Every structure is written in structure tokens, then in C-alpha cells.
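Bit of a strange request maybe. I'm writing a small parser for C-alpha cell strings and I need a real example to test against, not something I typed by hand. Could someone generate the C-alpha cells for this chain?
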Amino acid sequence: MTKYAVYVLDIKPLEGRALGEAYEKYVGSTYVDGEHQVDDRVDEHHRGYKSNVVKRGYGIVRGRKVGRLHLTRAEAEAAERAEAKRLRGQGYHVWQA
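Reply from user aminoacidic:
Good idea to test on real output. This should exercise your parser:
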């Protein structure tokens, strides 16, 4: 059964490459199942696959899953927004998918 996970990437602007505001965190969500896990999505970001983070001049320091798995995409997106809000409340500049 497919479920969804929220993840956070710690990012940093690459010298001379980042466009716009200097973000520190990227919050996204992805499906997970027996074959595809959050680490796979983080690896895709590293390779630049479906990743505006890399295309906009950011390097990825590390990525991690946040919280529990969600049964629906809508539930995961709501959790993604809540995590981004929580991080902003801690003073981080957050880029949300």
C-alpha cells in the first residue's frame, strides 16, 4: 500500500549559483512503498531529478523523514505545510514544495 512521507532537506546556496532568497530548509512530501523510500527521493534531489532545489543553485547537506506516514496525499501536504510553519517559527528560511 502506498503511503506518503514528509521530509526536510537541509540546504545551502552554492556560491554564485543560488537565485533569490537564501533558504536553509526545503520541505517536501513523497510517496513511499516497498520499493520507494524517503532516502530514494533525497537521492533524486541530489541528482537533480525533479528538483528545483538543485536547479536553483542549492546544495543538499542532508535529508530526513519527519513524523509518521500519511495515508493520503492531502494529509501529507497538510503535514508538509505544518512542518514548514513550525520551522519558520524557529527562525529558518524555508522553501516549501
